[in-house]
Each structure stands twice: as structure tokens, then as C-alpha cells.
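Predict structure. Chain length: 347.
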Amino acid sequence: MKVETITYKGGLVYILDQKKLPQKKVYIKCSRYQQVADAITRMNIRGAPAIGVAAAMGIALGMSELKTKNKVDFFNQLDKISRDFAKTRPTAVNLFWAIDKMVKCAHRCEEKSLSSIKKLLIKEAIDIYNKDIQTNKKIGKYGAQLIHKKAMILTHCNAGALATAGYGTALGVIRKAHEQKKNIKVFVDETRPYLQGARLTAWELKEEKIPFTLITDNMAGYFMYQGKINVVIVGADRIAANGDVVNKIGTYTVSVLARKHNIPFYVAAPVSTFDITKSSGKEIVIEERNFQEVTHIGKKRITPKGIEVANPAFDITPHDDITAIITEKGVIKPPFKKNIKRIIGNK
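Prediction complete.
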């Protein structure tokens, strides 16, 4: 299956609207950078690597449509557009990594003509897209070595092709194990409140014909106790220097259950997801989203009106709960602080 989460063609950015899945496969056509930024904010596109790619393409789009012939104005607008994208989602570090790469690309070639800089920005954005897919396939290759032939895998949220430029991180490991003809079975938890597991991961696995069972979030412990889950693989939105992982809300709960049942807990993420400026997960800003994501499913209210609601989008899984982190540079095992520095370096 070839899932095109996002593409840049004909001077436009096309984003697969993940809020319409699995019922409809619809693309949002973006002719202005603000439309790309809105798609990130509204979670029409989500997943740490995917929103990094979207920001890169959005910056390229915004600078391409700029009419000024003055370089000072050009770079002032680059700063503004970059700030606009930085405001869209606060937690996933890939977003800021991609913005930084685009800004540095423009400044590296600032002696060139504005038309040349615009073309180079488009090239950089497409390179970020292509390298993400290559990175995911390397993660899949390393991760599949950890998956035995009759693995029963629990995955949380969606860390598949839809969360990346293609192939996926955690789901990329599962996909590679399936390609290797390993007799795996996947448990997909629904991932309230946004149901990325039920809507998106289930859709991807069904398309790939990978055997899976959908469960509610509060069933994971039961199936672990029954011996029907023997490995957990999740993605990540940001990883601190000590190996603490920030990922979709509910990940920490799964990690505690896995530790209780002596089940290996793996995190699959590219190097771009590491933020070594943060010594631990406690330093990472956790996004708080609209209360209606909890009180409603789609447009239908499921709760009483006028109640107090909390809706953090992510939680922190301490490094002590993690068996290994799978990256495109290899598998990182404890002690994480030492081995992250050795493998990741200064990125």
C-alpha cells in the first residue's frame, strides 16, 4: 500500500485529511502556507515526522508565492512564516527541526537570486520528505530484528505511514516483520480521545492485510495478563537526553502495564525526534487541546454539558520503563543517557 500523507506538486501542497479517515480518503489542496499551518493545528495532518514534513513544504510554498524582489523583505517574511508554523503544535520536536532546516537552507544560499533560493527551498522540503521515508525503512529493518516469529504486538496511537512521509516508525517495524513473513498478530488500542488507533492504525493494517484486533484503551492490562500480548511498540513525539519519551496520551499507562507483566516496551523514532537540549521529559511542554475532543465524538456530544475537562495530548514515559529505542542509526539500549549521546551525538 502506498499512502501519500502529503505531497508537493504543481506548486501546491496536498494533505491527506486524516480527520475524514477511515470513511473518506480526501486531500486538502493548499495554495497558501496558512492552509498548511491550519491543517497542522486542526490535526488534519498529525504525527511528529509528518508535521515536520508539512511545515517544510508549507515554508517552501509560502516563500514561493512571495512577490517581493527585496531580499530583506524576503528573509523577514521567512522569519514570520517560520514563527507561524512554530505556533501550530508545541510538543513534537520534528516540527521545529524541519523549520530550522528550512531557515538554514535559505541562509546558506542568501547570495543567490530570490528565484534560486525559492527553488532550493522546494528541493529541501522534498528532500526532507524523501529522507523521512528512507529513515522509516531503516527503523523498520532494525526493529524487525527484535520481533520474534510469533509476536503478539500492542501498539498505541498511530505511528504508521499516516504519521510520517510514508512507511511509519512503530508501524514500520510491524510492517517489516510482516514483510519478512513472521507470523505476527497486532493489538490496536483505540487511543482516546482522538481515536488515532481505531480510525487510522486499524485502517492502515486493514489495507496491508496485517492481522490485528482492535481493543479499547482499558483492555490492554487484561490481554497482557492473559498472555496474549508479549511486546509493545510505540512511536514518539519528543525524546529527552535521558531517554524519557513524550508520546500520545496513554503511552505511560501502557508502559507501566508492560513493566508489571515483564513485556518488552520498544519506542521507534527517527533521530530528528531526539531533543538533547531537554535533560528529562519534565522539561518538555505538553500540549493541552480543546475540551470538545473529550466531550464529543465527531460532532456528537457524549457527556453532560458544563463539566470540567482536562485534555493533555501527550504524556511522559520515563526511561526506566523503556526496553530500547529503535532509530535509523540502530537500537539504543540502557544506559540511555550515555548511549543516546554516543549514537545521536549533537544531531
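Summary: DSSP finds eleven helices and 16 strands in the chain.
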